[in-house]
Design goal:
204 residues, alpha/beta, Rossmann fold, 5-stranded parallel beta sheet, 3-stranded antiparallel beta sheet, 6 helices, globular
Length: 204
């Protein structure tokens, strides 16, 4: 590893070895079929792996000079509970101001816990384990900005874009590995279905 930042190949190898990244035939919650299933939390069960990945991501974040100058003022806000181990790991590495997270109950809008109030102008890095559909991260970003906070970056361990994933261009986006999987909109267009590969629905 260079300066404690694991390479793309090293991250993918860790995910495969831990069972977090599995080949096969899966249906995501969006209904999309894919040839790989990713559950980063399986890799984060090992404390050494969790720390190594979080520190690696923190070092990527620190490559931005403006963020590096404001580390002690940063709030790390997780878009899901899966992002919390990463947020806490980054916070320990950079000595950030605080860590908290957004919560979502069914179809209700994302919100923070009672008595958690953001300060206007507060500098926020949104953290999660994976950027796939972008739905939760972008909803959290909109919530932060409505509250007057300034989202200065988004950071995830893995970038797994689907054909409909929004591209982040207006603020820094940091990740350790990009996963290029095959995606099919439905059963009719899915080559995996046509080949008779059994379908797994791990979230169903």
């Amino acid at each position: 590893m260079t300066e404690l930042i694991p390479t793309q190949q090293e991250v993918i190898a860790i995910l495969r070895k831990s069972g977090a990244l599995r080949p096969g035939h899966f249906r995501l919650t969006s209904g999309i079929h894919t040839d790989h299933y990713l559950q980063v939390s399986l890799a984060m069960r090992d404390a050494r792996t969790s720390k190594m990945l979080s520190v690696g991501l923190s070092r990527k974040i620190r490559t931005d000079s403006e963020i590096r100058a404001n580390l002690s003022k940063l709030s790390l806000v997780a878009a899901s509970t899966s992002g919390l181990p990463i947020a806490y790991g980054i916070s320990e590495a950079v000595q950030a101001k605080q860590v908290y997270w957004g919560e979502k109950d069914g179809t209700q809008p994302m919100q923070f816990r009672p008595y958690m109030e953001q300060e206007r102008g507060e500098k926020v890095v949104i953290v999660d384990d994976v950027y796939r559909s972008g739905a939760r991260i972008n909803e959290l970003r909109a919530l932060c900005e409505r509250n007057g906070a300034e989202v200065v970056a988004i950071a995830t361990l893995v970038y797994q874009p689907t054909p409909s994933t929004p591209v982040i261009r207006d603020i820094p986006f940091f990740y350790l590995a990009k996963l290029n999987a095959q995606y099919y909109a439905d059963t009719e267009s899915c080559d995996l279905c046509k080949r008779g590969i059994p379908l797994e629905m791990p979230w169903m």
